[in-house]
Amino acid sequence: MSDAVIAFRLFLRPARERSLLRGHPWVYSGAIERIEAREDARPGDLGEIYAAGGEWLALATVQPGATLVARVLRFTPGPVDESWFAGVFARAARLRREVVGGDTDAYRLVHAEGDGLPGLIVDRYGEFLAVQCLTAGMERLRPAWLPALAGALPVRGIVARAEKAPREPAAAETETLWGEAPPGEIEVREGGLGFVVRLAAGQKTGLYLDQRENRALVAALAPGRRVLDAFCYGGGFGARAAAAGAAAVTAIDTSAPALEQAAANWRLNGLPAERLRMLREPAGAFLRRTEEAFDLIVLDPPAFAKEQGRVERAARAYKDINLWALRRLAPDGYLATFSCSQHVGIDLFQKILFGAALDAGRPVQWLRRLGAGPDHPVQLHHPQGEYLKGLLLRAGEAPRDHGSGSLGAGAA
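Given the sequence above, the corresponding structure tokens read:
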């Protein structure tokens, strides 16, 4: 595929080009005056964007009829072909060589808008790449980007994962796009440990790459402490904590396959079985019923608000789970708490945690703001790209009467 066909011309309403001139890559339907389309135009095809006065602004993939109509690939004229993609991938790979430590072979290679490729996510797991196409536009451009991606790193195979975008058509099932099909399980390295990854199944493969640096932080705090890894999934936080010398780890998830994978990672690294307790139940239910105290709690729940209309309900859920976590912290215990809900910003998340601390009735220190590692870059002019946010908190003395039993240091 040498040059993708320009199938659309989008003309903006007067004075609606400002965000594009500032480098924001999205165009919403309300900004568009009219769309001109070729007879053979299909959703996801390329389109040129013009200001109301006729000035050329950008080249984008176009999804007519959607709220988010256009996602910009280029702010300068030129082709969107294999050579262009090769240049983008080369810059992305160079960044990862500079910012990702040598103790891992699992990281994000392409982070959609963060790397200038809206709708495309590429993760490296050892000798394989896992791709997510989140838009019809990137699906349409596959003949151009796939050979460029195959040449970006020396890998054995590239697989497309089946996760779909909520609003746009994308790949319907997992398939091998290039090279060898990955085995059912592969082993990757992080922080001196091995982790089992399943590229053909499982949410986020069982290893949340965006949490790599936060797992290292938890490991640094873990020696001698009783750790609760809530929403543990593949058990990455717990395994890193145990390897660093945690006294005990409790791993909780509602998914049996997730707990099986966490147990496999524990065995793979020869971690002491007597220091691990695994529970299959909702984390919130456990925190309500237990009277144990933990020195270090990690809360990494799934997105409670995948749509803007669910933010209020999500805020209540985040407050509840953090309230009970704060109640279960031993004096001077640490809480690493996260939200991956894109629609819950850091300011709102901080307010939610303030309310939880107030209701928990104990002083709380905010030590550090947390987020994804530098292999998940965010463009300054596209703050919507920052989806993972978190805080590291430290709780003071527990209140004498919190309504759920003693939380003194010896409660465990």
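Residues 208-395 form a domain with the Rossmann fold fold (CATH 3.40.50.150). Try to locate this feature in the token string yourself.
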